[in-house]
Amino acid sequence: MGGGGMGGGQMMEGGDGEWSDKKKEEAAAANITFLMTAIMNAGFIGLSLFRYRSSTTYYDAGEVLGTNYWKQANQLSSYFWLGAFSLAAFTQLLSMFGIANMINIYVWMLLLEGIGGLVGLVTTVMMLYGYDKAYTVTEDSSSSASDLLNAASVMTAIKDDMIEGTLDSLVTELTLASVGKEWYMSQEAMAMKGQKKEDGPGGMGGPGGQGGPGPQGGQQPPQLFAQFVDYVNF
Question: Which domain, by its residues, includes 25?
Answer without folding.
Answer: 21-232
